[in-house]
Amino acid sequence: MGDPRPQVGDRWPLVGRERQLSAITSTASGGVVLVGAAGVGKTRLAREVVARLKTDGRRTEWVAATRSMAAIPFGAVSHLLPPLNNDSRLSVLHAVAAHFTDSPVIAVDDAHLLDDASAAVVHHLAARQLAYLIVTVRAGEPCPDAVNALWKDGLTSRVGLAELPEDAVDQLLDHAFGSRLAPVSRRRLHRVSAGNPLLLREILLAGLDTGELRHRHGAWHWTGEVRATTRLADVVVGRLGSVADTVYAALEVVAGGEPVPVALLEQLVGGAAVATAERKGLVTTESAGRRLVARLSHPLYGEVIRSTMAASRARSVAGQLADAMTSTPMRRRDDALRVGTLQLQSGRTGDPRILLAAAKQAKDRFDHELAERLARSAHESGAGWAAEQLLAEVQLDRGRYDELTVPGSPGAGADDNDKVRWAITRADAMYWGQGKVAEAEQILDELDGDVADGSLVWILLFDSRCAEALALADKVLRSPSANPQALVWAASAGIPAAGFLGYQDRADEIYRFGTRVAAENELQVPWGPAQMGYGRCLSLLATGCLTEAWELADLEYQAAAAKEAIAPLGGWAGFRGAVAKARGELDVAAASFREVLALLPNYDTFRLAATCLAELAGARALAGDHRQAQRLLDRADSPTRLTSRLFQPWIELDRAWVFAASGEISKAAAHARETAEMARHNGLPTTEAFALYDVARLGEARSVYIRLSELATELTCDLGTTLADAACALVDNDFERLTHAADCFEHQGLWLHAAEAMVTTARLAHDAGAHTRATAATSRANNLMRLLPRARTPMLATTGLPAMLTSREREVALLAAQGQSSRRIAARLNLSVRTVDNYLGRAYAKLGVTSRTELGPLLSPRAPG
């Protein structure tokens, strides 16, 4: 299916101007002068006012002033004038007074470009109240005196139009894309357009033309820099106006390194050029600590100037800036990153120490692509082992295990810190790159230190040895000599380890401690706060505390989107997807997982790509789309994708729901039961509990309720008790107990579980003759299911007519409704064809139908009432 092209036409809908429009159209006489920067929508608003007033039956005229027409007296208004025998200005004004007797509406666009004679006509119309005027003027441009007099003399009102607020820009983006624009791309378009609707439209058109704006994984993404098309460049050059070469050179220097210290800029291009650029409104200055720095006055100026600059000029500017900055003390923390980036852009051999420091800062700021380029450049410039080591660490952060090259030993003279870093990199390469657990453990065991132990906690966690991980984390956290890096690593992995074991209180305790350490040492451990958040969210997911998990994931996701920080954004998008899927918000889940795949196409950090694909498959399966779910699961199963023992049960539970979506309910239940055994063997009691309850959700509660009851006594979180109560209630047909379980599910944010429980409660209460309770349960089930419009699960189908069927009759009927033959159904369910036909015949009789085609509408797994 083709990707629908965004609706980016020549005219946007009018947004963000409702207040001004209402005020203008309610004015009885005179008119209005609209003043604003180029592209803010003055002409669009003027056209809307004209259209509104035209519906009242008034005659309307449009005057468009241009630079070329400005040389011709009366040129802009010539079409308004009656035939004249004398073209003196006084005669023209007398003729205008005699001609305009019906008080028309006259719009004058770009009135700052009017010739003096035309401006006099416009002023005369206002002064004699011969017409209602709508005049647009570009802010900051010189105007004819007659135009300025319109509002200065009180003949018209003056309305200033600022850039559009964010919510109005969102309306324009929604008009163009609907909900199909990736959030980080939306954030970037906000920033680059700065609320200017004309520039926003031109940016989008340029992005479509250059391919930087493209459709991937169900959404539109801006994938690179703004590359200026001829049309976009013309628009920006028009805004810049005519400037001297020296001034444009100043703009190029600012674009090449903004913000640029003003003293440095004046050193490179001269004070006069800087002053002229600032006076023309092309450059702004602001204080940054004790320095005055210069920026271009609009974010798009820099994008377009950089895009249109000749490659040789761009290299020259970068080199000049780098040389100028290296002549300063470079005391600011980001100076190394800025100079290193400029040296990289200059194409010259850079200072290896600066490049290495820059690569480290880029890594700390989560800009892995830049960090990798800087590290490579540092190595090429002679930074040696340190650059190789940093490059390997960056590749590990990106999950680029196939490209990873671990450097050789740092040498006998290396300090202990370098030896530890090297050993941890070797261990990570063994585990994450090759799946060799024992070899990785041996490397870290030989180090025998807190930092090595902190790193080992992560490997133990992902190897599903949560009890060992938690014990080792506790050891590090109690160590008086542990440094912040060791504490952060131990805490961030210990939190989810405790969660998977069901120790939510312990997870909370570690989280509070680790968060404090990370906050106090953010410069030393820049990833600390994010790692704490990831660990906390995973712990909440493991224990079914989805309300808190969603609040955390969504808050951090929005923060990362605002910063356009791609790596953290991808991580939090994955957590949003996992939480939304567990809640039953399947559209949100699918969009989030697709965003991860689009944001991080070449990343497989922590070997989570397969899990992400499987979770997306599970979301589609729960929505009833078994074909797409199977395709996604096949991708997750690719032999080139490694995964961890921690998340393998997640993948297998997703597989169970793909079976269920295809109608193989018995097979799905059996696979969920096998997954529960896998989780038990792997030491994951909360995962086992979820898997066992999935067996119950698939119609076989009797086979799992005893084990769930045992787990309820072992787990210290509420999850085990709630799942066990629900399973026991299903076995006993106890709608009172099931209602209580639904209350607990809803409180924890497990909305889909709660909806399923209330659907079943409604049926059980109805069957027991408790009609009032059944009605109340039906109402509550409907309210829950309105939150989950896409959910399609067997328990949601166990109401009304489908509830008259046994689980096997319903399974056979569902497969038949999909158009499958009796022979194929028999093969899938390991039954005889005669048995299938018997089940089908009984289903027909109970439902009052005679063919497969009549089954589909009756078996739709939706609303109970």
UniProtKB/TrEMBL annotation:
InterPro entries for the chain: AAA_16 (IPR041664), P-loop_NTPase (IPR027417), Sig_transdc_resp-reg_C-effctor (IPR016032), TPR-like_helical_dom_sf (IPR011990), Tscrpt_reg_LuxR_C (IPR000792), WH-like_DNA-bd_sf (IPR036388)
Domain HTH luxR-type: 798-863
GO cellular component terms given for this protein: cytoplasm
Keyword Zinc-finger: no
SMART domains the record matches: HTH_LUXR
One GO BP: regulation of DNA-templated transcription
Molecular function via GO: adenylate cyclase activity; ATP binding; DNA binding
Gene3D superfamilies, sorted: P-loop containing nucleotide triphosphate hydrolases, Tetratricopeptide repeat domain, Winged helix-like DNA-binding domain superfamily/Winged helix DNA-binding domain
Keywords assigned: ATP-binding, Nucleotide-binding
Listed transmembrane segments: none
SUPFAM superfamilies assigned to the protein according to its UniProt record, in alphabetical order: C-terminal effector domain of the bipartite response regulators, P-loop containing nucleoside triphosphate hydrolases, TPR-like
PANTHER family linked to this entry: GUANYLATE CYCLASE DOMAIN-CONTAINING PROTEIN, TESTICULAR SOLUBLE ADENYLYL CYCLASE
Name of protein: Helix-turn-helix transcriptional regulator
Taxonomic source organism: Kibdelosporangium aridum
